[in-house]
Amino acid sequence: MTVSWKGGFLYRYREWNEYTKKILLEEELFYASFCSLNDPNEGKNFSDELIELHLKKIIGENNIDHKTRCNILNDLDGYNENNKSVFNKYRDAVLGVVDKMGVVCLTEKYDNNPMWHFYANESKGVCLEFYIPDIKDEKYVHLLPHYVTYEDGCYNDEIADNAIFKKNSDWSYEKEWRMLVRNINTKNDRVKKYPRDKMLVSIIVGHNMSEKDFKELKDIIDEINLKRTEKIDIHKRINSSYGVVFEDQDKWNNRKNGFQKIINKNSLD
Questions:
Q1: Cross-strand pairs, 237
Q2: Is-contact 27 130, C-beta < 8 A?
Q3: Kind of pairing between the strands at 126-132 and 8-14
Q4: CA angle at residue 28 from 200 to 166, to 5 degrees?
Q5: CA dihedral in degrees (155, 159, 162, 168; nearest 10)?
């Protein structure tokens, strides 16, 4: 199933550290390598069966040259249970493309306790709330969210889509969307700017955040808000056996009134 982004709210769980401060102060997002993510199968979610389906699709295309078609046919003929190595070059090619990609992981859920535990340092960190419009402008393509599908098995014949945007159903509770950059050559290529004042709308604070860290966060947001018409709100969660309960639930429920202009504009310009 393909789901296109039409605009709306997404969330990013974060530890309270220097990288998170850069998101706030320097308007920077870091696009991580797939091998650094917590799922060991990230970027490798394709099987020999999938490679075979993809190769059969390629040789059926009209624009493929004769030599390439013959080479692929020979590889398909030579592949069997005792000779899987003929697909190594195709596996390596896919992994090479994935290695040059970077990803920012977001979620539809701000109230998921496992994600608060694993991604926000046992609720000592934060959850950032972003409003992301239906992006059409090429200069913001790195901010366009892509839907992650959760299913088991071979999926379809698009190897790249499977490697990047499909995960095992065990991870379905994350309700994930991903922003992507391609053709990365250096670590600096993984750092991209985003228009903070058009996207970042509020911050949820974990119930285990220290007073010292909360004061530092509040001072940073107070400084940012001096220059903003639509203020960034801070919402403190309290300990709960399930989901998220806020110190001021009415403030959370009515938060969208404070940044209605951002939503109505539906643009990052």
A1: 246
A2: no
A3: antiparallel
A4: 80
A5: 60
